[in-house]
């Protein structure tokens, strides 16, 4: 029962074939079986969740259920909830209590969602793996020797392990899409401004709060709840975009396929599964053509380093309590100034923008490797036989630079080590619906992964 999709759970509860209390009990029981292995939760809110489940039960009986009524939702700890801890994986913030609730959380609760747990992140969400001095190591349910990715690693691990039906994430360099890929779930990076956030990072164009789920339809369900303008966020978009029911009809769509996004090195299993995904779209009636992009890994990381140093790293004071990877992150000394980085970002977007004038969407791998080791320290990583910065093991950063492009990551198969792999569907600026329709087609055409553990 803990692996029900949210949309199916809503259907069953509406038909009075399932109780929200029974569903929550199943999710809590599943957490009791696996949480000691995966360590995805920073906090369990089971007592308050059960009280809400009983209220949801009454709502279904009275036919007053809201869109997420009775659905257990795991919330990334980075997104604060008033009165609860807001520690961001750092010993520097241990015991800090939030004085405000993130707009995403408020909307989930108002829609009837039950926040039963909060999920782990790396310190200050500044890594693509999930471990910290405060919370320990979060592990991948498919193989605990590997990481679930980061920074929304706890959310990805929880979904994969069956300890939540929906989860929230945030994405500054791939932090939704990387754990979606590593954990075999679905993660959506909305275009900048689609989902409201809190200052100061709501003003950072690289930053996006978004939904994570086990199915594309579930991801759309949560996205429709959390999207829309908010009085606290000056960049939140009006009017609210409501995704329509998904058909997965891609007949006649033109899809560009890039296996390397220029010159990324990509492991063979990833390449094979990405080609399989492309063929699935062809079988569904899309026109899929392989293309080239004039990007290089060096240019992408130069632009990203200028941005991260100017916006993210500058906000973290040095302290011996920090994790080593956090200290390394804040110590980035970019080759370019912030202004020069913006100029480079414009140059990098131009060929993508021109490409998307000719194609409805771009398909590419989410990650160049199946997963990182669970306790990877942020140092060099070998990818396809070449050692380099570990962030070259993922292929998400270009689309934080192209921040107005919607991007969804969906499972593409499994690698030889048993870890899932993922592909990204990248859309034209603010064209959310197309990427969801392509993702729905992929999900319908590719074999399901099954469940771990």
Number of helices: 13
- Report the end-to-end length measured between terminal Cα atoms: 15 Å
Please give the oligomerization state of what you see. Answer: single chain
Q: Which blocks of ≥5 consecutive residues have pLDDT under 50? A: none
Strand residue content: 15-25%
Full CATH superfamily name of the largest domain: Amidase signature (AS) domain
CATH C-level class of the largest domain? Alpha Beta
Under CATH, the topology of the largest domain can be stated as: Amidase signature (AS) enzymes
Descriptive keywords:
single chain, 453 residues, alpha/beta, Amidase signature (AS) enzymes, two-stranded antiparallel sheet, 35% helix, globular, transferase
């Amino acid at each position: 029962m803990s692996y029900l999709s949210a949309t199916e759970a809503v259907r069953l509860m509406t038909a009075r074939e399932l109780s929200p209390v029974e569903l929550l009990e199943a999710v809590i029981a599943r957490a009791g079986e696996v949480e000691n292995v995966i360590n995805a939760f920073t906090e369990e809110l089971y007592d308050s969740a059960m009280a809400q489940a009983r209220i949801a039960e009454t709502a279904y009986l009275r036919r007053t259920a809201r869109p997420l009524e009775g659905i257990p939702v795991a919330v990334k700890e980075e997104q604060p909830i008033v009165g609860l801890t807001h520690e961001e994986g750092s010993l520097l913030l241990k015991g800090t209590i939030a004085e405000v609730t993130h707009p995403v959380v408020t909307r989930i609760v108002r829609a009837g969602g039950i926040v039963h747990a909060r999920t782990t992140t790396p310190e200050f969400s500044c890594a693509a793996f999930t471990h910290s001095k405060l919370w320990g190591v979060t592990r991948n349910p498919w193989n605990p020797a590997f990481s679930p990715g980061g920074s929304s690693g706890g959310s990805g691990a929880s979904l994969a392990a069956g300890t939540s039906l929906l989860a929230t994430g945030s994405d500054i360099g791939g932090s939704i899409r990387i754990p979606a890929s590593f954990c075999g779930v679905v993660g959506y990076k909305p275009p900048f401004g689609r989902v409201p956030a809190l200052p100061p990072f709501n003003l950072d164009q690289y930053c996006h709060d978004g939904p994570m789920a086990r199915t594309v339809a579930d991801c759309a369900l949560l996205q429709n709840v959390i999207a829309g303008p908010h009085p606290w966020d000056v960049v939140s978009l009006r009017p609210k975009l409501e995704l329509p029911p998904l058909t997965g009809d891609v007949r006649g769509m033109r899809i560009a396929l890039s296996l390397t996004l220029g010159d990324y090195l990509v492991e063979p299993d990833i390449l094979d599964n990405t080609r399989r995904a492309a063929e699935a779209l062809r079988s569904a009636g899309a026109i899929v053509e392989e293309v080239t992009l004039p990007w290089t890994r060096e240019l992408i990381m130069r632009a990203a380093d200028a941005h991260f140093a100017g916006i993210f790293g500058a906000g973290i004071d040095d302290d011996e309590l920090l994790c080593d990877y956090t200290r390394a992150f804040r110590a980035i000394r970019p080759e370019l100034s912030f202004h020069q980085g913006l100029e480079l970002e414009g140059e990098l977007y131009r060929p993508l923008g021109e490409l998307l004038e000719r194609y409805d969407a771009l398909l590419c791998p989410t990650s160049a490797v199946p997963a990182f080791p669970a306790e990877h320290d942020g140092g060099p990583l070998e990818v396809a036989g070449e050692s380099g910065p570990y962030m070259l093991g993922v292929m998400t950063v270009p689309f934080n630079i192209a921040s107005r492009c919607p991007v969804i990551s969906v499972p593409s198969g499994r690698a030889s080590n048993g870890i899932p792999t993922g592909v990204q569907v990248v859309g034209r600026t603010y064209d959310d619906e197309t990427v969801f329709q392509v993702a729905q087609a992929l999900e319908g055409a590719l074999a399901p992964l099954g469940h771990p553990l």
